[in-house]
Every structure is written in structure tokens, then in C-alpha cells.
Amino acid sequence: MADSVTALQLSPSFIRPSTFLQLLAFAILLGGIYGLVALGLTMIFGVMDVINFAHGALMVVGMYIVWWLSTAVGLNPFLTIPIAVVALFVLGIAIHRLTIAPIMDAPQENQLIVTFGVLLIIVSAIEITFSADPQSRVLNLGAVGIGGVALPGGQLIALLIAILAVVLVWAFLQRTQLGRAIRGTADDREAAQYVGINVPRIDYLTFGLGAALAGLAGAVIPFIQQIDPHLGDTYLINAFVIVVLGGLGSFPGALVGGMIIGFVHVFGQFFLPGSGNQIAIFLIFILVLLLKPEGLFGGGS
User: pLDDT higher for 207 or 154?
Assistant: First the structure.
């Protein structure tokens, strides 16, 4: 993504309409990916009150599943995406069962240490298995012309997947009984138990779904940039900013915040020198903490 934006840079004094549309497409794509990552993160926090430091590492697992299955095994790269999502759902449930469930009633710092330990284990395992060298999945799908903009085919498909995933997750949370149970548990765990919701089961499903969303976000990354075992750290840091921006535990806030940070990242990278885009993101983070610490959506689900 960074390479794509850098390649578009022109004179800082103006921006062509076609370049603006190209940046807009990149911003929507990155915003969708950020939204998926932040949604999984805030879903786990909102329902279980657990801050999952391993979330970025789960995203990296999704990246390497797609990269390995499509390069070493030779599967169609688009068929590997649902495989990655299912694998991360199962992995998320396993992590919850083995590490989170036994300490659900422990102080929150215990959960932070445990999830940080899971992060180190996952990243180290990926480095041992695949090495720490950057990997890429070259996929020549040509380009599609839209409104005078030539969008690379791989990035366009990643964009469509991100948008579709955001819409489906939103519909699931709003329109299904299980989605309403998840939102109800996020609002009040005790009240959810009183009305017959199996809260421990919701915890398992929530952690699995959160991991699956991280896996889905990671699964589209090999189509747009090189990957390495530590790439999830950058996305995780910005995902925490998005969660605070949207409101802790707020599902709509995660999606809207993801889009906002996606736009700031892409247009900031185009117009600002060096790491100015990341500085802009953290300035937004600080301003939100100072002016509206509850976030844009006030922590509601």
C-alpha cells in the first residue's frame, strides 16, 4: 500500500483528478482493512473486556496462510481467503480456550501479559517456519479502468472483498439472533445471563470471530504489498487508535474510525513528508483523548 501511494506522488502544489481518484480508492481499501482489524479488536474488548495484543499476529497468520497456499501449494489465491478465515476462527477459539478462558476473572494486566506472550509465540513461530525475510505474492490481474483511474486488478478485488466483508459483518451483528446476542453481551454481561444468553459460549464465538476478522484483513494484504512476520504490529497500533477514536466497544465506531484513519494514512502519505501521515494519525488520537475521550460513538454498540 505504501509503495502504491508513493508511486503516485507528483508535485506537492497540485493533484490531478485521476490521482485523487486513485488515492481515494487506496484510502477506501485501507480503511476497509483497518475497519475489519479494529472491529475484531473492539468486538473482543466490548464483549469480554480483554485487550488482545495478539490481534496483529493473528492478522499475520492470515497473510502467511494465503501466501503459502497460493505459492507453495499452488491453490488459487482467492480460494485461500476463506481457508484463512476458517483457520483463524478455529485458532482464535483454541487460543481463548487455552489462554484466555482460565484467566477471565483475573486482573486485566494478567490478560495483557498472556496475549502479549501469544503475540511473541506466533511471530516467532512464523519466523522459524518461513524466515523473517519479506515475502510477496505477485499476482498479475491487469488493471481495470474506472473513471479515468487504472486500478490494479489485485487491489480492486481486495477493495471489493473488504467492502463486502464490512457490510456482511454489519448485517450479521444487526440482523441475526447471534449478532444481537453478541451486542447484548457487550452492553451488559450480567443482564445477558439473566435473559438466557450463554455468555461463556458467546465469549468463545466472539474471540473466534475476532480472530477470523483479523485473518480476513490479513488475507487480502499479500495482494497489495509485501508481508513479513512483524507487519501486523503497524496495523495493530493503528487499530488501537481506531478503537479509541470510534469508542471502546463500539462496533459502528470501529468501522467508521477505520475509514477515517485509512483516509488520513493514504492522503497524509501523499501530501506529508516522511512519516508525517503517522504523526497525523497520532495527533488525531491525542485530540480525541483530550476533547472526546469516550470516542465518536460514545462506546455504544
Answer: 207
